[in-house]
Amino acid sequence: MPPFDRAEYADRVRRTRERMASQGLDVLIVSDPANMAYLTGYDGWSFYTPQGVALGLDADPVLFTRLMDANGARVTTYLDDDAILGFPDHYVQARDKHPLDWVAKELASRGLGSGTIGVESDAYYFTPRAYHALEAGLSGGTLVDSHELVNWVRVVKSPAELAVMREAAQIMERVIRTGIDAVRPGVRQCDAVAAIYGAQAGGTEAFGGEYTSFVPMLPTGVGTSTPHLTWSDTPFTRGEATILELGAARHRYHVPMARTVFLGPPPPKLATTAEVVAEGMAAALDAVRPGATGESVEAAWRAVISRHGLEKESRIGYSVGLNYPPDWGEHTISLRPGDTNELQADMTFHCILGMWMDDWGYELSETFRVTPQGAECFCDVERILFVTD
Q1: DSSP secondary-structure letter at 125?
Q2: What is the distance between the alpha carbons of residues 221 and 243, in angstroms, rounded to a whole number?
Q3: Over the chain, what is the mean pLDDT?
Q4: What does residue 164 show for φ and ψ, rounded to 5 degrees?
Q5: Which domains does the chain possess?
Q6: CA separation for the pair 355, 342 (Å, rounded)
Q7: For residue 291, with 0-12 CB atoms within 10 Å meaning exposed, 13-18 middle and 19 or more buried, which class applies?
Q8: Which of these, 96, 114, 116, 285, could form a disulfide with 140 (CB 3.0-4.6 Å)?
Q9: In this predicted model, what pLDDT tens digit does every residue of 206-256 receive, in sequence order?
Q10: Residues facing residue 29 across a β-bridge
Q11: Reading across the β-sheet that carries 52-56, which strands appear in turn?
Q12: First to last CA, the chain
């Protein structure tokens, strides 16, 4: 069964159709697994083969996937059996044909192959071969880029979605505490990650957690000078920092968080930077309100760090929520110069302040909800450099 009631999904489909109409689309084909889940509830580790959901202005959603995964759709979605299509297995990873050859014929037979057809041209799991197969098989229509249409529908969260994110936040608080406690001299990085994975999956006594769209990030020592490093079996060492960029997920909704740990007395430059970053975080969060823009929130942060002689070129945040590997961001609003999209109540963001220097670094992040009163952080964890002897 899907995690939300039928009324929630009906409203999502309605709002998606409204946006389709505004963009001049007759049919929308989504291949982003998060958008598939958003519209139907589908949840399965099947995105390594072609799959998707087709939606018409006057036609209910049709889900297509590998035949062996069709029962997974019956288990996890609200769709009737005749709205679930499973392509035969001899199409899988074949050189002379593509699964969407078969899918295109099925969609065309259901009236979903004509007019202006939106496709997710920049989705991770939508390949050039998939595009060309649809283009050839749906020759009665014209394929155009849908420009992350469903992602933009997803950007404002419903009360039910926010409730799930609050549950993810409870898991996240346990995950980050577990990670901080695991960073000790002599402990292997891989053993710390094992504890983190246990906290992510174990969740709370009331509800469990799930795999996250990012693996745990644990850059250590000189590795803190760059983001997106994972772990090794090397023990943690006194005199080094470790960045914990972690996440928690509940029903595929994510609440990420980053904190930094130093073993032993920290060098003054790191301690000072941690204080400046915390001040900048407070300023950025204070700038959050409905009607503010992505660039105005970033400007509040930049005004603080520039006073201290610091610079940060990369964005400081992005919308976040429902997702699958390899990313938990929604690919819509960013907190950076030039993003003039206005924030609205019940949007959710991950504000991540990473300062990556020549041979050291520091990270601090918060996931927050936009409210009429400002930013509401999902978690309550100290915004400090954690120091362990």
Answers
A1: T
A2: 9
A3: 97
A4: -65, -40
A5: 6-154 (3.40.350.10), 159-388 (3.90.230.10)
A6: 26
A7: exposed
A8: 114
A9: 999 999 999 999 999 999 999 999 999 999 999 999 999 999 999 999 999
A10: 54, 119
A11: 84-87, 62-66, 52-56, 27-30, 115-119, 141-145
A12: 48
| Helix (H/G/I), strand (E/B), else coil: 148 | coil
The whole-model pTM stands at 0.96
> How many CB atoms neighbour CB 262 within 10 A?
22
Average pLDDT over residues 337-347: 98
pLDDT digits (tens, 9 = 90+) for 2-50: 999 999 999 999 999 999 999 999 999 999 999 999 999 999 999 999 9
Token pair recorded at residue 284: 């950025």
Instruction: Kindly indicate the confidence band of residue 389, based on its pLDDT and cuts at 50, 70 and 90.
Output: confident
Is 49 within 8 Å of 14 (Cβ atoms)? Answer: no
323 φ/ψ sector (left φ>0, alpha ψ -120 to 50, else beta): beta
Q: Side chain identity at 98, as an amino acid letter?
A: H
CB contact at 8 A, 374 and 285: yes
Alpha carbon distance 33, 324 (integer Å): 7
Rg (CA), the chain: 22
Dig out the tokens for 217 from the structure: 């990030």
Q: Which two tokens stand for residue 239?
A: 């005199």
pLDDT over 90 (residue 186): yes
Strand pairing partners for 355?
Answer: 362
Question: Which pLDDT does position 376 carry in this prediction?
Answer: 98
At 49-76, the pLDDT tens digits run 999 999 999 999 999 999 999 999 999 9
